[in-house]
Each structure stands twice: as C-alpha cells, then as structure tokens.
Amino acid sequence: xxxxxxxxxxxxxxxxxxxxxxxxxxxxxxxxxxxxxxxxxxxxxxxxxxxxxxxxxxxxxxxxxxxxxxxxxxxxxxxxxxxxxxxxxxxxxxxxxxxxxxxxxxxxxxxxxxxxxxxxxxxxxxxxxxxxxxxxxxxxxxxxxxxxxxxxxxxxxxxxxxxxxxxxxxxxxxxxxxxxxxxxx
Length: 185
Known about the structure:
By secondary structure, the protein is an alpha+beta fold. The chain has helices at 3-6, 8-18, 23-30, 34-41, 49-58, 63-67; strands at residues 86-87, 93-98, 108-114, 129-136, 138-143, 146-151, 155-159, 164-167, 174-181. It has a six-stranded antiparallel beta sheet, with no helix packed on it. A three-stranded antiparallel beta sheet has the order 6-5-8, with no helix packed on it.
C-alpha cells in the first residue's frame, strides 16, 4: 500500500496547502465546518465519500486522481493555460486561482468574475493585503462597514484583516484581477 491510501487526511492537507487555501476558506467553499476539516486532516476520522467528494470538488480533483500517486512537479510551471486555473468560487462568483504548483509561493493572484447579483456573502477577514483592478463592469466593495462603488479601470488596495465583501448590484458581469498576500485565501 502506498502512503496516499494510508493517510487520506494528510494527503488532503497537503493538497489544500499546495493550492494556498486556508482550512477556513475550504470550509466556506465546501459547506463543511472548519472543525470537520481539521479533524479529517489530522486523520482522526476518515471522511465519508460524500464529504470527500465535497472537498475534492473544491480542489478540482476526481476520486481516482485523489487515490492515485501524486505527480511530482520537478520545476514550477512558467506558463499556465486558462484551463489550468483553479476555480475556488461558488454561487455566481468565479475566483480562478493562478497557480504554478509551487507550494512555497508568497503571492496569490486571482481572475474574478461576479455575475449580476452575486456577492461574496458575509464579510470575510484574513491576515494580509489585497490589491485589484476592475477590468469590466461595476462592483461594490465594503470594508469595515464603508461601501465603495467601483467601475472598470478603477483599482483598490485593502488590508484584508478588516471585514470586507464584494457585491455586484449591476445587471452586467464584473471582472477583476487581484493579488493577495499571503498566498493562502
């Protein structure tokens, strides 16, 4: 038996870290609790197939890919194709993570699309900073209870330690390119 089949929790933690995601972000995206993810990653419990499928959907992996030996990347990719971006969004919000396979990266970059009426929901907060530029459309950015209405061509810089959210109240999609530090989302 290989190490993959012996320690699924450890494997899930490794995949999550390689993607630069925090346990809390994975909990939000999967609909699971933070404590459930923590317990699974510590191999204290084995996840049910339905739970595993929720996690693998966030990680953009099939069950067969998860249970096969991981591919060793010897050198980080330089060119990443559009179909290789990892979508970590949900419910009308597409957050496509640009990732070259390097687990120790310090910067995360996203191509974001907000459909009309879409929102990140509750105000989130995490250590770090974020900067972004609207490529098209409009978005309302709320930071610490203050709202800013941005249009295509405008940029923003925020301390993500403050509660913040994005909402598209227009009738057109909004596209943003953003960068975040640290690389965990």
